[in-house]
Specification:
Layout: E1 8-13, H1 20-33, E2 38-42, H2 57-63, E3 68-71, E4 76-79, H3 86-93, E5 98-102, E6 111-115, E7 129-132, E8 146-149, H4 153-163, E9 165-166
Parallel strand pairs: 1-5, 1-6, 2-5, 6-7, 7-8
Antiparallel strand pairs: 1-9, 3-4
Helix pairs in contact: 1-4
Length: 167
């Protein structure tokens, strides 16, 4: 990507176990192989994610109610006691080329709806395209939306580069 196209963002939506995370991993890997810097935001609407193990120092620090940063030679992990806006998260990432967001249906980004095995049409209203495989009868999908092959990661990347929102 050239400098004028930097910082594109796109979101992924769809039912649980539809393949969103697998697709995002494939896309991120391929984009990085192209030399692009990728940032990823994962929405955890049920607050189920576990980021540290009980008994570890950072867990003990976090249990005090304090905000905690753990810094190592290869990464920084921040434990905040409040939610963050998309703008807050983007500013923490600094420089990147492509932002991939899993979930966060309320933010206005171009959205890829991942559908596999069964059709769940509640995701179509806020989606811009559908990525699916042969487990879905494509005749039953909205005809006014772009249909992408879930197994053709390069085509999905091209859609992202053409339709991602500059941020």
């Amino acid at each position: 990507m050239n400098k004028t196209n930097k910082r594109l963002a796109v979101a992924f939506t769809g039912p649980s176990n539809s393949g969103k995370t697998t697709l995002i991993v494939k896309i991120a890997t391929m984009l990085q192989e192209e030399g692009l810097k990728v940032a990823i935001i994962k929405h955890d609407p049920c607050d189920k994610a576990i980021f540290d193990k009980e008994g570890k120092d950072s867990y003990k620090f976090s249990q005090t109610g304090s905000e905690v940063a753990v810094v190592s030679p290869t990464r920084t992990t921040v434990f905040k006691k409040e939610t963050s806006t998309i703008e807050d998260m983007v500013s923490m990432f600094g420089d990147f080329d492509i932002l991939l967001v899993e979930g966060l249906k309320t933010i206005p980004l171009p959205r890829v709806c991942v559908q596999r095995d069964t059709i769940n049409d509640i995701y179509f209203e806020k989606s811009d395209c559908i990525a699916t495989d042969n487990s879905i009868d494509k005749e039953k999908l909205p005809q006014n939306m772009v249909i992408l092959d879930l197994n053709n990661t390069q085509d999905i990347i091209e859609w992202i580069k053409q339709n991602g929102q500059k941020i």
